[in-house]
């Protein structure tokens, strides 16, 4: 079956009522959550406990900063975000964030749809659903907070694009965004949230705005893996629109491997992110430090079972340079302790080579090697994925293997991201976390 015919078949199934009855969905939409705390989860009910299924994150991104030059937001504009799922389900709910806003965010209409598979802003016929928040179409998200929509019955496929479209008629302040989406989203003048046809969406954008997570109700996935990282996890040099980040390749492995656990994969990478320091004002898009954001962006994600950490290289190569490997190690150990407090297992990635990158210095590489030695010695994480070994040139180990080099000698290309995903031992993704590290 071709991809296009597969999407056509989905259209005939779109009107089928999901096996999950409405009673299992507790009304959680419209609940504001401070983005420094755990996101709201559905309450326990007898019906929910009896149902075969659970809420699991299928997609997520980290809010990085306030979008530059958006002091009034996008009044009278529809924003259609294009997102790629990892696991499927029979119902969905969406989280929207105003973390970096400067005024309350008032959205009068928000919709969710399955994209038609052509790569543009068109919805698959019969899949567009209006979202509500506490039973109401309109919602106000206070500054620094987020909101979770009411669930909607919608058959969400695995490895498919979704469309989350928001509309505000008002000037709503600075826009919370993720700058390096590696995915094309769209804007349209006026309220086109209910348009299945994407004709009105004539403006393209490389950003995700407001939307930070999508959960699905599933009886297949047993939880989610969350990747906390920098530009290498963000997929900075991957092909735009192809979903070739290493986390996408990992999702493909988990979906296709009979031996591997069935898990959602959530990408919480921010380009330029560091373990220890927040981004300076002139690089605000690099986001808050991993230590500051780990609870909000990773540990509170729905169904999170395992955290994969790929961080530390920016602490070394960005100014002010961190020359003390022990400081980076201590920061990574603190992330692990935070995860263990939530009952979440942690797998740590070694820091990848970067000789040839414009800021490279031998003393920086010495710090990287010291951090990697601590990771490999088991001093930091519950398990290790050796990204360094997977990507380095055997003939010149301080450099990326040429076939994996995007050209900047720091970030992998698509083949390199595939190699990173292949380096993950799927058996390490589930297991108990020790009490201390």
TrEMBL record:
Pfam families noted in UniProt: Lipase_GDSL_2 (PF13472)
SGNH hydrolase-type esterase domain: residues covered: 227-419
UniProt xrefs under CDD domains: XynE_like
Keyword ATP-binding assigned: no
Taxonomy of the source species: Bacteria, Bacillati, Actinomycetota, Actinomycetes, Kitasatosporales
Stored SUPFAM superfamilies: SGNH hydrolase
InterPro entries according to UniProt: GDSL_Rv0518-like (IPR053140), SGNH_hydro (IPR013830), SGNH_hydro_sf (IPR036514)
Organism encoding this protein: Streptomyces silvisoli
Signal sequence, start to end: 1-22
Name the UniProt record assigns to this protein: SGNH/GDSL hydrolase family protein
